[in-house]
Amino acid sequence: MIFPIIAYGDPVLRKVAVEIDKNYPGLQQLIEDMFETTYEANGVGLAAPQVGKSIRLFVVDATPFAEDKDDGGKLPDENKMLKGFKKVFINARIVHEEGELWKFNEGCLSIPKIREDVERMPKIRIDYFDENFNHFVESYEGIAARIIQHEYDHINGKLFVDHINPMRRKMLKGKLKDISTGKVDVTYKMKFPLKKQHA
User: Which portions of the chain are predicted below pLDDT 50?
Assistant: First the structure.
């Protein structure tokens, strides 16, 4: 099933999500549906709050990055490593970040038509459970780390626009309000918190 993606302005995107256990009802189906929703919207990741569920779960599939070529028409080495990088993160905790902050242009399925440069640490260590509740502590860097950090923010009630400077955020205020009210063209299903429903 493809979920409508919750748009900017909905309170669920600002809640700190709660942990779940392996008995969470319909977990495997939810994970499957979240991947399906991600692909339908041409995304590389999706967190449960973005489909209206305030739980500590997110999915990533970085395959689209594995196909991005550089200006010379070649696949950068890092992008090659993202091929098949498809994972489920449950009850994740980033336990360590390191390196020099680096900028990268980010977007978000909950905030369509807005992309901004966001600074993040290049290396992370994360403690999490997979879809079968196997426990892992793993390190990631580069694009993989960034995708994880972006989705991890969602389960902590944060959005990528929180990382940009206040002046720039002020300039985006009108666009963000338009997204909340549904005044934006999207090619995937969305649920807008402030959109007036026609009787």
Answer: 69-71, 73-76, 198-199
CA angle 65, 53, 165 (to 5 degrees): 55
User: Can you give the pLDDT at residue 146?
Assistant: 95
Instruction: Find the DSSP H helices in the chain.
Output: 27-40, 63-66, 77-81, 142-155, 166-171, 173-181
CB 122 within 8 A of CB 133: no
Identified catalytic residue from 19, 32, 138, 151: 151
pLDDT attached to residue 198? 44
Does the active-site annotation cover 151? yes
Whether 130 contacts 164, CB under 8 Å: no
Record the pTM: 0.91
